[in-house]
Each structure stands twice: as structure tokens, then as C-alpha cells.
């Protein structure tokens, strides 16, 4: 047999009787499983998930579920096809041994794989003081159970809710509170809501929108501590300016932490920032060398993006999980040159205060912004972000149908400011600074160091940095 | 039945709201919310809504229910 025929035979054999393990049974995990079967993989498929539920959708949790319209258990994801898998739900993966190609589970079992997909996503960052975080009435929102508990708490008409952090999810929670007629205070360390994602110019508009809906918005401030009553229920939040706010529900919406601890010691490029991979979903080892058998998709993945100077981007967005999973699954059962690249133009939506906010591209990559359509006063507008004379992202408020126009421009590296789409233009179309927070502030990102000299010994190591 | 709407794709045309208002709702001018697990009696309505959506954003399960999911 020629080498080429041997390789073709190996691929056929792997598709027929290989062993694939997926860790993480949510959006990315399910879509990957479906794609594997779609691509003709008939070998054994094991899906490991630490949550006891079959895969469900998260975006409705902070919207229709919190509002009480849809029960939390109604969010199971639709099945596009049979996946015929061994589902191991309610048990976490706790380790990965690449030498013997096994995933270790919390119940002591070890599951062997030929190819592995990491789809463990992120979790909510908890309120940092554990005693205060354990007070009744203190919530985070990531899972079905979280949403169910918070919905119950909101249905009991609390006297006031304090939301800590005005990112997308915190802002959506505040919006639901106002829709339910619950007084709400939002405390945000940055200068305005959504600044990290959309910058200060849009942040100011979001701030006004919150205030118009009766949110008590306090920016440039942190919560320094939470105070409970004798029954262990939260009653008050103390702010960094010395004031305090009485509340019986507190929602900590402090961003996310990537679920990578189970990969410690595996020698993969997995850490604080996620799991590094190439644009085909193939995971890098700690030295930056691509592995052959391990893939990653969804919120936990971090890959270089061609449109953004090949910077490694982690995208915690719904469509990134779907498309990333499809690409990774395809590549798991194919060989070069039949690999697909994950070249998604990132996109995001959020519904808050009756406004549909959408973005395409990577807004924080831009340093300038220009309003191109509609009216800021009416909160129906489109704005474009630019970087060195090129359009890199766009955001719309209740102007969703225009997003495709901007998406196409971004894909083609169109000029900034972009050519006006023809009508509905605001009077003032002057670019201005987009006002993203300064990226130079120090973070707790670990250092990477090199050790060894001989080619076979030379290796990289993570050294966590502590402040 | 199970559905999910790809809200990246959805452009708020509200076709689905006209055809199945118990399942799809606009929250404001164009922010769509929906019941992901509508009653089976609504199947026909939902299928019509999905067919009428100009951008095909409504995804309906092709197989129903879980298949032999074991919880450890
Ligand atoms: C409240 C909320 C609202 C959102 N709203 C929007 C929105 O409006 N628009 C948008 O684009 N995106 C939104 N998102 C983001 C979107 O839901 C995520 O991008 C998507 O869920 C990512 O899917 P994933 O499969 O990568 O990760 P996840 O959904 O996080 O799934 C990972 C799964 O792996 C499990 N797991 C973790 N560690 C282990 C382990 N060691 N062993 C076994 N299992 C493990 C986790 O428990 C989880 O079930 C929202 C997210 C939340 C939480
Ligand atoms: S018909 Fe389609 S595009 Fe219109 S609101 Fe419904 S899902 Fe969105």
C-alpha cells in the first residue's frame, strides 16, 4: 500500500471505530457531538458534564427566565440529530493524562480517548469574600440553578436589589428588576456600564438609559463589603466611598473564570486566559506546539484571529460556541488539507431596557468611534469602531438589520470612517476616541518562563503571579 | 418541543410574533424573547413562524427528547 492509501485507511478506520471524548456538555459540547455524527463518525463518543442536566441554553436565563415568563428547565437545547453517545452527566473531569490518553473523572473512573474536545466554558466569578458570598440573598448567574434561585428571590418582591458590575449580564439583571418594578442599585467600578465591551462613548448612552429607567446607577465605585443580619441574610452593601445601600438581594456580576483547573499538569497551554489553540481548534501545548489529538471550542478557547492582527482572542459569545464546535468537530475527523478554519466574525446581542443591542467584530480593538446612522437621543442608531483607518467593529441599538452591512465592511477590511450606507445619517459624523479602559493596568496574569537547553529538554512553565 | 432562536441572525422583523404570539414576544422595538419549550399544541404555529422568518433564525429540534442520558 502507498503511504497515501495507508493514511486514508487510517482516517476511515478512526471514523469507524475511534474513541472521542468531549468534556463539557453544554452548547459547544452538544453541537460538536452532533457535527461528529453528521460527518460520519460512528466510533464511540463519550460526553462528560459536571452539571446534572442535559445541554441547555444560557442566554434566556438572564432575560425571559429571570422575568418569570419561562421556567429555567424549559431551556434545553434542541437536538438537531441523534448523537448516540455515552452521556456522563453530573460528574466532573478532574484531570488529563496525555501520555496514556485518559481523562480522569471525579468518581475515580478514567475514560480513554483517541481524540479529545475541551468544551468546559467559563463559570461566574464569585464575590471574593467567601463568608459574605455565602450569605443568603447573594447570587451569581451562570447556570440553570442560579437563574431559578434568583428568579424566586425576585418574585418575592425584594425591597431593593444591588447589582455589582454593569457588564452585559449585570445590566440585563438590572433591566429585569426594573421591568418587575423592583428598586435596583447598580455599582460599577468603571466609568459607565458596558465600557469594557463597548467603550466609554457607548457606555455613557447605556448609563443614561439605565437612569431613565429608574436604576440608581453608581459608577466609579466598588462594593467593599456585604453585611448580613443575624439570620445570615444579606441586608446591606458598603461602597468604597463610605456610603451604604440597604438591599435584600445582591447579584455579583463580576465576569467569568475559565474552567481550566482540571487541565493543570497536562502540559497544555491552558491557564488564566483559556486554552490556546490554532484557528482550527487544535490545542497548543505549553510550549506553543500544536497537539494532534486535543481540540477546544467555545468560551474556554482562545485562538488567533486573522482580522485582528492574529491576536489570540477568547470570545464568550453564543455563535462562537456553535461555530467553533462545528469547526473543531470537523477537523477531529479529517486530515490536512481538509481542515476548516474558525474564521467567525464575532457577534453578540443583548436585550436590556427594551433595547436590542448588537455588535459585530471586536469593539475593544478599535480606538475611535463614529455614529453612522440613526439618532442617539432616540436610542436607535449604529456606530462603527476604527483602528488605524480601518473599520474593526460596529454596534447597533435597535438597528439590528444594519449589522450585516457593517459586518461585510469589517470582513473586507473596509475604511474607517466607513462609507455612509446612504440615508438616516446623524448630523454629526465626526470620529472621536472610543474610550476603552487603559490596557496597561497590571493584572494577575501569570508569567511564563523558559527552562532547559537541549532541544528535547527545553520547555515553558507557568509561574502564577500573585498580588 | 424545543426551539432556539439564533438572535445574532434575528433582525426583529416580528414575523414570528404575528404567527405565534404566545411563543415569541418583542420586548421593545426589536428585542425578541421566546419560550424555548412551547407546548406541543403550538407545533404548527411554531413551524409556520420558523418558515416565515426572513432570515431563518428559528431552529426547531429535529429529534425530540433526551436519548438515554445517564446521570452519575
Ligand atoms: C446568563 C447568561 C446570558 C448570556 N447571554 C448571551 C447573549 O445574550 N448573547 C450571547 O452571544 N451570549 C450570551 N451568553 C454567553 C453564552 O451563553 C456562552 O457563550 C455559551 O454558553 C458558551 O458555551 P460553551 O459550551 O463554550 O460553555 P458553557 O455554556 O459554559 O458550558 C461549559 C459546560 O462545561 C461544564 N464543565 C466545566 N468544567 C467541567 C469539568 N471539569 N468537567 C465536566 N464538565 C465541566 C460546565 O458546567 C458547563 O456545563 C450568556 C451567558 C450567560 C451565562
Ligand atoms: S421572524 Fe425571525 S427575524 Fe423576525 S423576529 Fe422572529 S426570529 Fe427574528
From TrEMBL, chain A:
GO cellular component: cytoplasm
Record-given protein name: Ferredoxin reductase
Pfam families assigned: Pyr_redox_2, Reductase_C
Disordered as annotated region, ranges: 416-467
Ranges of Pro residues composition bias in the record: 416-440
Protein keywords: FAD, Flavoprotein, Oxidoreductase
Known cofactor(s): FAD
Presence of the UniProt keyword Glycoprotein in the record: no
PANTHER family in alphabetical order: APOPTOSIS-INDUCING FACTOR 1 (PTHR43557), RIESKE DOMAIN-CONTAINING PROTEIN-RELATED (PTHR43557:SF2)
From TrEMBL, chain B:
MF terms in GO: 3 iron, 4 sulfur cluster binding; metal ion binding
Alphabetical UniProt keywords: 3Fe-4S, Electron transport, Iron, Iron-sulfur, Metal-binding, Transport
Cofactor(s) this protein requires: [3Fe-4S] cluster
Gene3D superfamilies: 3.30.70.20
Protein name as it appears in the record: Ferredoxin
UniProt organism field: Streptomyces fodineus
